[in-house]
Amino acid sequence: MHNVNMKIQALLFALVLIFAPSVYSQQKIVILNTGKQDTRIDLSKPTVYLSFERYDGDNFIWLRLHNNSRWTISFRTDDDFYGLVSDSSTWSAGRDAFGLLDGTKIKPKYMVERLPEQMPMDNQGCVSSKSWLPSGRSVVFEIPRKGFETFNKLRIPFTYEWETEGYEPEHRVTFEGWELPKVEQ
Questions:
Q1: Alpha carbon 173 to chain centroid, angstroms
Q2: Tens digits of residue pLDDT in 140-151
Q3: CA-wise closest residue to 161 among 73, 75, 35, 76
Q4: CA-to-CA distance for 142 and 54, rounded, in angstroms?
Q5: What is the DSSP string of 102-116?
Q6: Is 176 helix (H, G, I), strand (E, B) or coil?
Q7: Are strands 152-160 and 73-77 parallel, antiparallel or unpaired?
Q8: Which of 1, 5, 23, 81 is the most buried (most CB within 10 A)?
Q9: Residues 6 or more apart from 127 whose CB is under 8 A from it?
């Protein structure tokens, strides 16, 4: 009888070892889905988004790129900001690099889709630098006002700090012409 009880105890212990990781992972999923460990800083906003800043006469529109995620993001820019408008920090994924300061003026690489023709207008030159925007920061940039009408969509591709360029799904932040405030004549 003692031998049977030991076998039952061993079997129960083995079952606990087999199913415990599954129960733990299910509990972790529930915690993540409740928002207690959300990836966003401001839960009312997307993780990365663009907002209207201002009109600059009839020539330019100023937009702000916000990193509302808990991770640093990177995107391509015309300028290398090394040491000029950046600070060094260690990020969530352990990377140690320079990140853009909050409010820095940048020249990002972007594409504008002109709907319905799908004729692109872009700022995609041959030479660019990878710029890093740490968690909770935002940067500003201008785009030509002429040609950015109601049916246009601006998009900026970006990656999160743990991703390798070229081997991950493409993330992009967008801003559509209809989001611009109407100007009183």
A1: 7
A2: 999 988 877 667
A3: 73
A4: 9
A5: TT-B--B-EEEEETT
A6: strand
A7: antiparallel
A8: 81
A9: 78
Tens digit of each residue's pLDDT (9 = 90 or more) over 63-86 = 999 999 999 999 999 876 654 555
CA atoms within 13 A on the CB side of 106: 34
**Rounded distance between C-alpha atoms, residue 124 and residue 42, angstroms:** 31
Instruction: Report the pLDDT averaged over residues 107-117.
Output: 81
Question: Taking CA 136 as the corner, what is the angle to CA 135 and CA 140, rounded to the nearest 5 degrees?
Answer: 105
Q: Which residues are CB-neighbours of 143 under 8 A, at least 6 positions away? A: 60, 61, 63, 110, 112, 123, 154
Q: How far apart are CA 97 and CA 137, in angstroms?
A: 15
Residue 132: both structure tokens together: 């890093």
Give the C-alpha separation, 65 to 107, whole Å.
Answer: 11
Of 69, 89, 76, the C-alpha closest to 131 is 76
Alpha helices in 107-149 (DSSP H): none
Q: Residue length, the chain?
A: 185
> Which residue matches tokens 């999160």?
160
What is the pTM assigned to this prediction? 0.72
CA distances from 184 to 33, 101, 124, 176, 181 (A): 44, 34, 33, 20, 9
Alpha carbon distance 46, 32 (integer Å): 16
Between CA 3 and CA 86 the distance in angstroms is: 69
